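In this section we walk through a basic example: taking a raw amino acid sequence and producing a predicted 3D structure, encoded as discrete structure tokens. The instruction is simple. Fold the sequence below.
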Amino acid sequence: MGLQVLPLAITMMAGPQIMSAIVFVTTGRAVRVSLAFLSGVLIATVAGVSITRELAALLGSALPAGGLQSSSLGKGIQIGLIGLLALLALKNYLGRKTARPPKWLGTLMSASPATALKTGLLVILAMPSDILIMLTVGANLEHHKAGLGAALPFIAATLLVAALPLLLYLAFHKRAITAMPAVRDWMNTHSWLVNIIVCGIFITLVATGT
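The resulting token sequence is shown next.
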């Protein structure tokens, strides 16, 4: 597929998604719950891309020949998205002193594998930014008349980014045991900065037509 796979995959996991992955490797059953979480991410991403691919196929005849971005409506949507994301980034910056991480992140410390699986599904399928990215991937597949197989690099990259905390935990077990909680605490106290970075990445993707 013609998309820049790695930036899309990073954006898929930026924010609560990667924070969840980091929290899971700080639990007592780090490997089990992390593998369950990754299973949820994989299932959700495959299902999401498949659904958006079919949706793009159904809407194919209603889209301009050069794609939505080639129309005035598409350009207006693009400008509107950039404006909304910029406002969201500004809101996060102005509210940085009172920003708090989502309360549900704290409950993940005692999560079971079943809860971790459900979390992996929800952080992909319930996040508007991830839905937009999967819609972009689905539209790209339809534009090139490609099947789900063409999206495997994107799916694999998303899973790899999601697995980074677990891979680091396994590779540097002793150091990770002390480092990961510190990373988790930093992300909790700097959630506003994480959100701004996510907005910046997505603004770049929208502006460049990735």
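Looking at the output, two observations stand out. Residues 5-67+100-185 form one domain. The two ends are 11 Å apart (CA to CA). In the next section we compare this with other chains.
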